[in-house]
Design a protein that fits this description.
The chain contains no helices and 34 strands. It is an all-beta fold.
Length: 407
């Protein structure tokens, strides 16, 4: 029955447009955890913070430490590396590594001498790793209190992506190649493969399978061999949730933006760009049951459930006090069913529209709905077949609209 659901597609958030620059191939540094979402503008010392899953934003400037190279959450801290100057990641612009224990209200500088010239930070769930402009890396096992510095055999100082998958740590290098470490980045292996000469952007793992981009490549043997997944797009960004892959890039010939999804480890993809606006994408991230996309038109989000990813509708799925609505055609009982959650007591009306936007059905109730999950079933015998739109409107002034197919 759930195969009949169609959703409301991409939602544009209120994130200020000016902080999503049209900067080819450079991802916007971001950090998502719990109900906080930090996203760097990449153009100034301003950092924006959201406490409602990326829908509204607060400007939290922090004394001109520079723009954010990387930022993430670990333990009780938010940690970020910062730089000054116009260049993105230039070694001579590094200003330092800072951390915050109060969700970005105040910041302290990490002054360990091993950590000077940090370009990018990574967290594999056990340790923090810093990519140093002088070459080599530094690591910390105590949320940044102390660091150990060491040289690596990787080519150049620029690591674009670092993940832990199974027993190995993997790093995608901007000078080409995917490196593998069994001893927490002390020593690295690389292999003479098809990806050794490519500037690699993202690296993700699903089970024992790895994927990397520029373009899209897949490895089933711990990065020793790679095969190209041929797509008509130049894939630059990857993200994952459950067993789903999300990939974004542009066409080789026209440079228009595309977002794709795959639920079978890259064997097949479908287009999910739909109503997403913009000509260039510089962020693709998954968190809190949403897929986020940053384009030169702003920051957008889309519920993972509508893309087929198994999720639970929770309080983290909210735009306001009326939570994300889903609707489906229970044709065996001649019903259209609406399911939703509310965060506070309210009453609701339901309107159903045809493809021309005309109201063809209304359902109103003065019944007060309490906090929790609710379901409303509407007799569908009098409704026309085909695409319809359902809108739930609360007495608090909130509304959500979904598209559905009536069979």
């Amino acid at each position: 029955m759930w195969a009949n659901i169609t959703w409301a597609q991409w939602q544009k958030t209120s994130y200020p447009m000016k902080v999503l620059p049209n900067r080819a191939r450079y991802r916007i540094p971001h950090c998502i955890y719990d109900n906080y979402f930090f996203l760097s503008p990449g153009t100034s010392s301003t950092l924006y913070r959201s406490s409602d899953y990326g829908f509204t934003w607060q400007d939290i400037s922090f004394n001109k430490k520079g723009f954010v190279q990387s930022i993430f959450h670990t333990g009780n801290f938010v940690i970020g590396s910062f730089s000054k100057g116009a260049s993105y990641g230039g070694p001579d612009t590094i200003t330092g590594v800072y951390r915050s224990s109060d969700n970005g209200d105040t910041w302290e500088r990490i002054r360990d001498s091993s950590f000077r010239g940090c370009l990018f930070l990574f967290d594999d769930g056990n340790k923090l790793y810093g990519d140093l402009s002088s070459g080599g890396m530094a690591s910390s096992s105590d949320n940044g209190d102390t660091w150990m510095k060491y040289q690596t055999s990787m080519s150049g100082p620029f690591t674009n992506s670092l993940i832990r998958n199974g027993n190995y740590l993997y790093a995608a290098n901007s000078n080409g190649g995917v490196y593998r470490s069994l001893d927490s980045a002390l020593t690295w292996q690389t292999f003479d493969t098809d990806v050794s000469s490519w500037i690699l952007n993202d690296l993700i793992g699903i089970g024992s399978t790895l994927f990397t981009s520029y373009g899209l490549y897949r490895s089933d043997d711990s990065a020793e061999h790679w095969r190209q997944i041929k797509l008509p797009y130049n894939i630059s960004y990857l993200s994952t949730s459950k067993n789903f892959i999300f990939a974004a890039g542009d066409r080789w010939d026209t440079a228009d933006m595309h977002v794709l999804s795959s639920g079978d480890k890259g064997n097949s993809f479908r287009e999910i760009t739909d109503n997403l606006q913009g000509s260039q994408l510089n962020l693709l991230a998954v968190s809190n049951d949403y897929l986020y996309a940053g384009t030169d038109s702003g920051l957008w989000r889309r519920p993972l459930a509508e893309l087929g990813v198994p999720t639970e509708v929770t309080a983290g799925y909210s735009v306001g006090d009326l939570l994300a609505v889903q609707a489906y055609d229970n044709f065996s009982r001649n019903e259209i069913v609406f399911e939703f959650r509310v965060l506070k007591e309210m009453s609701i009306d339901i309107h159903i529209y045809d493809q021309l936007g005309r109201v063809i059905f209304t359902h109103g109730s003065q019944e007060r709905l309490e906090f929790g999950k609710h379901q409303v079933a509407i007799n569908s015998l009098s409704l026309p077949k085909g695409p319809l739109y359902g809108r739930i409107i609360s007495n608090l002034g909130e509304s959500q609209t979904v598209k559905l197919i009536h069979y």
